[in-house]
Amino acid sequence: MSVSTGLSYLAIPGPSVVPDRVLRAMHRASPNIYEGELVEMVPGLIEGLKRVAGTQHHGAIYITNGHGTWEASLINTLAPGDKVLVPATGSFAHGWAGIARSLGIEVEILEFGKRAPVDPAALQARLAADSAHDIKAVLAVHTDTSTGIRSDIPAIRGAMDAAGHPALLMADCMASLGCDRFEMDAWGVDVTIAGSQKGLMMTPGLGFVFFNDKADGARDRLERVTNYWDWRPRTNPDVFYHYFSGTAPTQHLYGLAEALAMIEAETLEGVWARHGALAQAIWAAFDHWGSAGPLEINAPRGHRSHSVTALNAGSDKATALRKWCEAKAGLTLGIGLGMAEAGTPEWHHHFRLGHMGHVNGHMILGALATIEAGLKAVDLPHAPGGVVKAAEHLADAL
Asked: What is the pTM of this model?
């Protein structure tokens, strides 16, 4: 028997749950892409996205995923043979580095492992040693979706300034924008990348690149930028067609307009506060369960993401738990990603809970109650009562 019939809950760390009102906004006939409503609303969408990113500079929309925004950020600022420094706290820093290498860019990894954030002192020391300023950019992931680690972007900026280094600071905010506090201009970030399918409550398919004048100035020294990835025509188009280097992603734009309207109605501060309260309730549950068993939150206290929690179950029962939750109760948890021990599949001992975008108290408490039932069903040792701890936290916080 199962009790999974009904509304399923996709609690992976992206794509996230898409609100019904966003889906309804997308469910329409294709509009005219040359004049009328769609053409008139796109400049407002870009301004709305810039408010979420905390910038008054430039914003471009690409029809792509996060990997595409990695490429766009690099191809507009760096030439083959240039060098970048990548402070790594998980798989996604290495993914960005891989895109850089494919473009002929020299990559240096500053490795912090899978259980620690970026150390600003180590970053400062490395940049201070680069007296020739060979390093042209620092590629920093705000929240690494694989490890659940949130690094301190203002501290990274501070380390760069203390070293007197002119490199660009680029921030990957795929898993944090619209979930964790992020303020591009105030924090001194030169390039920010993000996507539609996580905190912005949309279907996958749109990538966003925000950049300031310093980053745009780096474009001037490049011999060429491929037509599709060039951000200048997108931010200063002479015709609407150039916003997207071709046909606009029409239905996606209508959905994005609705999602941004929901964020504006809640306010960005409200969105951040909601994600913070729900994340802390989740941590309360998992910390309690782990007090009498192997279950452990991967990220250290003080550097846990408000959008995704990565877990180590200490055994292959992580897979059994995920399968039980989905098959028996309709809750889909995320596989472990990039967390493999030697000789085991990467999802074997690990799983992730996404809590980003369109989530609220009853969704999170329901997910946690399902997980607690699953822990018992698969006989994964734990301290009973984690859901109570989460409920107590929310009751005290609200």
From this structure: 0.96
